[in-house]
UniProtKB/TrEMBL annotation:
<protein>
    <submittedName>
        <fullName>Metallophosphoesterase family protein</fullName>
    </submittedName>
</protein>
<dbReference type="InterPro" id="IPR050126">
    <property type="entry name" value="Ap4A_hydrolase"/>
</dbReference>
<dbReference type="InterPro" id="IPR029052">
    <property type="entry name" value="Metallo-depent_PP-like"/>
</dbReference>
<dbReference type="Pfam" id="PF12850">
    <property type="entry name" value="Metallophos_2"/>
</dbReference>
<comment type="similarity">
    <text>Belongs to the metallophosphoesterase superfamily. YfcE family.</text>
</comment>
<dbReference type="InterPro" id="IPR024654">
    <property type="entry name" value="Calcineurin-like_PHP_lpxH"/>
</dbReference>
<dbReference type="InterPro" id="IPR011152">
    <property type="entry name" value="Pesterase_MJ0912"/>
</dbReference>
<feature type="domain" description="Calcineurin-like phosphoesterase">
    <location>
        <begin position="4"/>
        <end position="182"/>
    </location>
</feature>
Amino acid sequence: MNLRYALLSDIHGNLAALDAVLDDLADWPDATLLDLGDTLYGPLDPRGTWQRLLVESETRRVLGINGNQDRDVLERRPSATLGFVVDELGDAGLRWLQKRPASILVDNLVYVCHGKPGDDTRYWLEDLDDGLRALADINADAADIAAEILVCGHSHIPRVLTLPDGRMIVNPGSVGLPAFRDSDPPHAMQTGAPLARYARIEATDRGWLIAHRAIPYDHEQAVEQALDRDRLDWAQWLSSGWA
Ligand SMILES: [Mn+2]
């Protein structure tokens, strides 16, 4: 068995970005695709994104978990875009979401969560005041996890970080939303580029090799979809990568 995994997080219903990432992965057909959640929520193309992942799973192993905003859809947490997403997905799409867990251990090697272990709403690596959280705090969240490598999403910021025991935590960044602003607490996350981000991780003789990828795609298509749904905020984030 090869030990190759493509990490896709925070796709957020951006089919144009997902298509570009899957095109980029054409030379890695035997890699497992790990979807780190916040897959479908947003004013773009939730249904198309869901369908594209189903098609991908016909030719590649695809494993996914839910993020906080997938959960928001399932729990019908009110937002400007909730009704659109629920209507687009219909019962079958919602059932697909419902089946996904909050975290998984893949091949007894790769631990996958959305935010941090046990909490899909918190950043594992980032502190809003200091940039990174204290290493002791990051490490404490990893203490009980029996895995060689740990992966998370949610912050939309690509990173790789080494723990004192040598294990790594990898955040691939966001496929579909390169910046955002949140109100609870008020803060912005931004990469500064309108690119689709993902990561490849592979076990080698020298240890795990991590490759972050930044993929150009037709982001204007996503901007148009956001504008069609009166989401000027998303349109700005998608067009620039700044929030
Ligand atoms: Mn999230």
